[in-house]
Amino acid sequence: MIRACAPVLAFFVASGVLFAQADASFPKRVAQAIDKGVEWLKARQVKQGADKGCWGTGENPIYGGGGTTSIKKISPCALSLFALLSCDVDPEDPVIVDGFKYLDQNLDKAWKEDNVNIDGAKQQADTYTAATWLLAVEALHNAKIDKALKKAGKDPKTLKQRPAIKLEKEYKALVGQATKWLIHKQTKKGGWRYGEPLFPNPAGVQQDISATQIVLLGLSSSVRMGEKVDPDVWTKAALYNLDMQEKDGPPLKVIANDTGDGGTVLMKEGDKSRGWSYTPGEKNPDKEHDLKVSGSMTASGICSLIICTAELAKTAPKKDLVEKMRRGIFDGLAWLQTNWSVSNNPGGNRSHYYYLYGLERVGVLGSMQKIGEHNWYLEGAEFLINAQKDDPNDKAIHGQWYSHTEIEPGDIFDTCFALLFLKKATIPVTLISR
């Protein structure tokens, strides 16, 4: 059975249950790693010139043959703001103010797509841009709510229900436009691709599992900010993800036992290890690795199905679709259990920390303490704490994460993903149980 539950404030803090099996120093070490990561990310922001407020660009060794300079600056900026606000940075901190000022001045909010995207011009939208912008806007308004609550002597962490977000007139219009634009960009199959400015559609690739997931996260933010999304959007997205999942796989060998704390998802005999690749079902001969099933894409597929399940639970979804989504989720979890790792992206050739952030999204979205037999947070957090390193340009700042497996600016993306994992920044939407 999969049942929906209301979003709760627990996404801001690490659950005490998850700390129960750790040593006594674990909460302190997590907090220190977050603080150091925040310090590093704030210091990395561009402080002057035309790019003041953004987080720069970098050489892109993964796409474009290893030499193309990425001039996309909106997405790293929006993701950085989302990560910092999720880590309780004051919404009036100059870093946050300058970051949103950069977005306001440089993002083409007509939400149109175009091949032309040069320095000095408004930066055209792609689906990743729109989705991360929505996540950042929601995080900004949640942070303002928290600040007001604390000023009134209330503890946001103890509230049973958070106050609804009330967008200013300008933001409300922009959120509505971005939401409609994302819905318009959904393909006939039900998925999304990033779009022309960032990723054109080579060799007929029209949609992928990763882009679809980030859009669904952005649309979930839109719903929480008061926008309406037609159930057909969630249905089409669910069907796309189900169709792209592996059709068969080996039966699960290790069955997880229920610990009695409500945080473990039971895996049963009959569950099959079925995952996702980046561009399943697409003709992409130049990048065969994009057709290989991996941990990052399997986490993305599970995340998408959990979101669609939660949103469709508000309506009256067909029972056969609910059962298919349930089966897809549990078989995806079986793949993660069977191929478990936190030290690399299993099956993948890159994006290690994006995979870890994927585990966070799956664990928090589904309100799971464990994925199979693994306490995903304890294992992943221990890895990240030990992987944090000095900034090569400033040894005084020990707060960077950089796996060298991500698109550039890889140090920015990896640090954001690490912080979002450690802070458990995703908003839970569904409790999954048998």
SSE order and pairing:
Layout: E1 2-4, H1 16-19, H2 26-44, E2 58-60, E3 68-70, H3 74-86, H4 94-106, H5 127-151, H6 169-184, H7 209-224, H8 231-244, H9 295-312, H10 319-338, H11 352-365, H12 376-387, E4 389-391, E5 394-400, H13 410-423, E6 430-432
Antiparallel strand pairs: 1-6, 2-3, 4-5
Write a brief structural summary.
By secondary structure, this protein is mainly α. It is 46% helix and 5% strand. It has a single domain, classed as Glycosyltransferase, CATH 1.50.10.20.
What are the key terms here?
434 residues, mainly alpha, Glycosyltransferase, two-stranded antiparallel sheet, two-stranded antiparallel ribbon, 5% strand, globular, disordered N terminus
Gross morphology is globular
* DSSP summary: helix tally: 13
Strand order of the largest sheet: 1-6
Largest sheet: 2 strands, antiparallel
The proportion of strand residues reads 5-15%
CATH fold name: Glycosyltransferase
Q: How many structurally independent domains?
A: 1
Overall mean pLDDT: 83
Question: Helices and strands: which structural class?
Answer: mainly alpha
The arrangement of helices and strands along the chain is EHHEEHHHHHHHHHHEEHE
Uncertain runs with pLDDT below 50, 5 residues or more?
1-20, 60-70, 114-119
- Specify the CATH architecture: Alpha/alpha barrel
CATH domain class name: Mainly Alpha
Task: Report the span from N to C terminus.
Answer: 5 Å
Q: State the share of residues found in helices, binned by percent.
A: 40-55%
The total count of strands amounts to 6
**Oligomerization category of the chains in this entry:** single chain
Q: What is the radius of gyration?
A: 20 Å
